[in-house]
Amino acid sequence: MVTTRRLFPTLAEHLSTAIVVLDADARACYLNPAAEALFGVSARQMSGQPLAHLADGADELEPAVRQALATGIAYTDRERRMYVHGHHAITVDTNITPIPGGEVLLELAQLDRHLRISREQLLITQNRTIREVVRGLAHEIKNPLGGLRGAAQLLERELDRPELKEYTQVIIDEADRLQKLVDSLLGPNGRPKRRTVNIHEVLERVRQLVQAEAPDGVRIVRDYDPSIPPLVAEPDQLIQAVLNIMRNALQALGHQGTIVLRTRTQRQFTIGDVTHKLVARIDIVDSGPGIAPEVLDKIFFPMVTTRADGNGMGLPIAQTLVNQHGGLIECTSEPGETVFTIWLPLEGEHER
After folding, report:
1. Per-residue model confidence as pLDDT tens digits over 249-258
2. Both 203 and 181 in a single domain?
3. Beta strands in 287-349 (DSSP E)
4. Among 9, 30, 60, 255, which has the minimal tally of Cβ within 10 Å of its Cβ?
């Protein structure tokens, strides 16, 4: 008969709550995948390490851990603020429970998680609504635009003076420019042709394109998890989505800075209102000046841009392409670090 102790790691791997087991010296001896994802460390890296190595502020739990070890009484710590990677703040409720064998079980529930799910549902609903409104508007524009271009071409044939033909050519060129903008508003046509693809092949293709455009002072760093399994996707659409984000990062940096491409997996992860057994997390991190808070909530809206030469379509299109794969793009930003996170389910096909 399989004991509960032997079953524990298997059960913990499928929990969405972060689980950390500490030994009698308050050093980590087990992290489940949810804890690895929450703190951005691997169980192997944390093995035998003190709480201080988990996150800044985690060491403040140590007195309660030692008290639980000494007394055998469980303890609850509410709304503990910690900093992952030294700067990313998270707020957790912690249950500290002594378990047989002189060990302590930490259950860390991220309070921000419910806010994140609500925000994701809003982003997905927002994107769908905007997409439908924009598609309707774009179709209304296309018909008169085609008529305008055709009339300019007919008029050009009737004109003998070259200087007058220059005016009709301006009309035709502007009609073509607007046609391209409308096509970008409409997004991809038809059902995507999907196949099994390695996400790192997508990222490497984008990295090569962006590296060719980048000034000498811009460095692109790769931090890949090679164990991520393949996913079923339309690779060209994912390339376009990542490329749009990477080019934004490049423009934010100017002539100097760093872009980090980081990949990880997470188990039992919710995107919107759908829970997935396994998802890929792709972080695109730049060291630029950041995005102003008043702009951050609107960056996935069409026509929202902080650049004079931008049309504000890159991020909405990227969000649409990722949504069609059942995924989502989120963004956090502060001066010196902007993080675009792409979440992609790693099981089954998705069409929205």
Report:
1. 999 998 999 9
2. no
3. 328-334, 337-345
4. 255
